[in-house]
Amino acid sequence: xxxxxRPHDDLTDVAGIRVGHATRNxxxxxxxxxxxxxxxxxxxxVDVRGGAPGTRETDLLxxxxxxxxxxxxxxxxxxxxxxxxxxGVMDALAARGRGWPVGDSVVPIVPAAVxxxxxxxxxxxxxxxxxxxxxxxEQAMSEAGAGPVPLGRVGAGTGARVDRATRPGGVGSASxxxxxxxxxxxxxxxxxxxxxxxxxxxxxAAPEPGSATxxxxxxxxxxxTKAECAKLAGVAHxxxxxxxxxxxxxxxxxxxxALATGARPPLGAEATYLLQSLAADCVTxxxxxxxxxxxx
Length: 296
Fold this sequence. Notes:
- The chain is an alpha+beta fold.
- The protein has a single domain (11-294), classed as L-amino peptidase D-ALA esterase/amidase, CATH 3.60.70.12.
- Helices cover 23% and strands 26% of the residues.
- It has helices at 85-95, 130-141, 226-243, 269-294, and strands at residues 17-24, 31-38, 42-48, 55-56, 69-70, 73-76, 100-102, 105-107, 112-114, 161-162, 167-168, 170-177, 183-190, 195-196, 215-220, 244-245, 255-260.
- It has a 6-stranded mixed sheet with strand order 5-3-17-15-13-12. A 5-stranded mixed sheet has the order 1-2-6-9-4.
- Strand 10 and strand 11 form a beta hairpin.
- Helix 3 packs across helix 4 (269-294).
- The chain starts with 16 loop residues before the first strand and ends with a helix.
């Protein structure tokens, strides 16, 4: 199996994928959002496994449902308040005329997932806004959006914590290449209740419902169906379980999206196996890079 990496070793190594952050770390704040923008719109799937998810448009990504392409994916802090960041991304996409055609208009398709970081900057009333979503989108569309992706306590990972909130979490990303040249990559905002595998879990107060969550995106330039994207998102959770323990608890809202640009041909059975294996590996490495970059 190939572990060769692209130049950035991050999500932007998948051609056509751009990433932008809005980071709110001024006094009283520790939150933000991260926007992943494929160009053009691409196939997307999702797998939600945590017991306390905060999500938007995930039902739409069920393979039985109509829409199969998305215009952006949003990862944000702010708990449920952070879902409003997707409105800013939608507004920015609509202004560019991008979205699902409906009569004489378009409706941008922007699924999102959020993590809990309320109060970690000092004021629990401070959470990312619609304007922060627009800011992250505009950064994704700028020259910086082509990579490398800033890691650590930025974007959706600004207020992230791990190990019962005793250590800093953050954003990490990694990529790999199959022998046939197909690229797969992951970007993860790590805010887990659990601890890095191999370290003891911190003791202390009982966890609060919805107080954690790891969210992320895996992407590839392979041609996948909506159902195959859903499976790829599911495999991404295996990479999470290799890096953090426990995962998928009643207190986490662990969610992964999968994007397939279709720039390369469909894969055969062996390449599909390798793609899924490397996707999980990328998630594990992305989490390790996030914790290192965040100082955790």
